[in-house]
Here is the input.
Amino acid sequence: MTYLQKNRKPRKSFLRNIGIALIVIGLVVGIKLLAGSAIDRMAMSIGGPITSVYTGFKSKLSFAGSFLSSRSSLVEENKRLSTDLDIAQNKLLRFDSVIQENRDILAAYHRTPFAGKAVLANITAKPPQSPYDVLLADIGSNDGIAKGDRVYAVGGIPLGRVDEVTGSTAKIVMFSSFGEQSQVIHERTGSTITLTGNGGGNLESDVAQEMDIEKDDAILLPQFDGAVVANVVDVESTVTGSTKKVLFRIPINIFHIRWVEIMKSTPENAQ
Here is the structure.
């Protein structure tokens, strides 16, 4: 049988036309970048398929450029909005801090049993910023504060005493300061105990083995009008020992102290 071979000339002609068109488009685009709007006028004057291909390609190129430009604008806008959001969040945090500070001050004045007798002081340094359970307050001798003045946590909890003063600052040594010793009363039995500070709000004492003292017992300070200064947290004893070690902790978290009340030793505030 004899088969007629297909004519491949139209296919070759089509591919050749496509190649020519691509070359022309490349030239047009290249020249377009150099010559600007003059290419538009030349392409439109040629007419025919070239004009149609050029117009379609130009339209798609313009769309792609607009898309990329819009995407770039969106990226920049997103960055700007993100920066604005960070600024707004920082302002909100500062605002919340001021609101909380105001609430703390109001609460302090409502809870204090020493209204009109004590000076409310802001703590500028505390553990772990300051070592050995020492506090720094933002008032001093200019406000009538003197060495030896009693210091309370807000609410009337004994903390310690003023150890040093300048015109505008006061250094406060807490009862739990390392090595600080205090004579206290065991509330339940009335026994006298000597407490020694261990730092971190902790204190300890060695007492007689037969002393009746248990966990959660309260310890009072007679020189602070019998206020509770610490509570028993553990009792360590041995069968053969003549004494036992008792561990205490002050009833507040010293790392969260923001305000203290300083009882001035001036005659009008003396008790």
About this structure: The helical segments are 9-35, 37-46, 48-111. Confidence is low (pLDDT under 50) at residues 267-271. The first strand starts at residue 118 and ends at 125. The chain has three helices and twelve strands.
